[in-house]
Design brief:
The chain is mainly alpha-helical and about 450 residues long. The chain is built from 19 helices and no strands. α4 packs across α7, α11 runs parallel beside α18 and α16 runs antiparallel to α17. It is globular. It is found in: Cell membrane.
Amino acid sequence: MQLTDKSRKWFIATLLLGTFTMSISQSSLSTAYPTFMKYFNLPASKIAWLTTGFMLIMSVVMPLSPWLMDNFKFKPLYLSLLINFVVGTLIIIFAPNFLIMMVGRLMEGFSVGVLFPSYQSIILEITPTNQRGAVMGTVGLVMGSALAVGPIVSGVLLQILNWQSIFGFFLIVLTAVFLLGLKTIVSPLKLKSSEFDFISVFMSLGIIGLLYFINEISHMTIGNYLNWSILIVSLILLYLFVRRQLKMKAPLLHLDILAIPNFDLGVALTSLSYMSLITVTIIMPLYYQQIIGLTPLWSGLALVPAAALLSWLNRRSGKLADRIGFKPVILIGFVLFIIGWAGLLLFSEMRNIWIAIACSMVIEAGNAFAMMPATTLGADSLTNELIPHGSSVIATVRQVMGSTAIVLATVVLGDKNFNGVFLTFLVIEIIAIFLVFKIKDTMKATA
């Protein structure tokens, strides 16, 4: 299906508005944990499952995205995901207990897990190659700013209303997106029917076990045999999953694309970039509260300058990549990461809010130059038929690495060891910059 420029813009705008709202739900609940603990009379470890469970279900359904896009028209698929998210949100709002609330939360996670790879791959496929950098810059704006905006939105709503208002916000916006989508969302791709491989889906459950183990590391002991058993079983399942995908003629997920030059680097670099972004989003509010002494509301608002800069830079960095190539743009991003983390490490003892905000802005600026350009670099190395598989691989690996970053930061943080966190991620991004120099920049410049 051929789209006019106007219909393409409306299509992408509606898609991104829905994705932005769903993305906010991934990071918005951390601010509300104390409220949930009091409301349900549960410890923080139980409440954390609102985020952990959400991320687990997201990760396990991401590999299903290519099959769903091949076998279902995109418009009904997208609208169904919106309906599922809205129903899950209604269940949360009226949940009589925490268990019912978790059911609604898992429904939300399912929609986000399918949508994350789908919307990126379909945008890539309907966008001319020489415009992908700019368009994916807008996609990066949605992903990056949503992570930062989540705690801000929840902090403001909790200050004024109750916790149900956070989910009420999602409900109102996504209802409007659904109505808009009835008119603007289309199904531009041809279907390619294939059998559903239940065995591969079962094996992919190893992702849940791996992420569960990663999330439990911070408070488990060496003698915790159950968690170690979960890790071993999960690794076996994932090994069998990978081997099956590589041997099948029509795999659930084409993992052989990881051998394609630039795609492998795109996966690694976008994941390493995301690790810094999600760590800043979670660690800096704690730094503002525990070291500088800000209230939860102001610690959330202190993220606004960095989020605003990220939003402003994303599309501009994408346009720059279209003009001069991805390698120099991604290099700028990782240099900014190093400067930002080094600044936090060197000046943290000054306990100055403005220096901390400035360093956070530099790190998030680095994300604008690194994450989506690296994603687009990887996509450009694939044929259109493989782009859904590439988007799914990138999204899944990025999710696992994001969870790993959160656990790593939490373990290193311990009792307010913020310098340890800053040093850890400084070292990670210094190592990452060596990968940038391995990029084979096949620039298709238009300038």
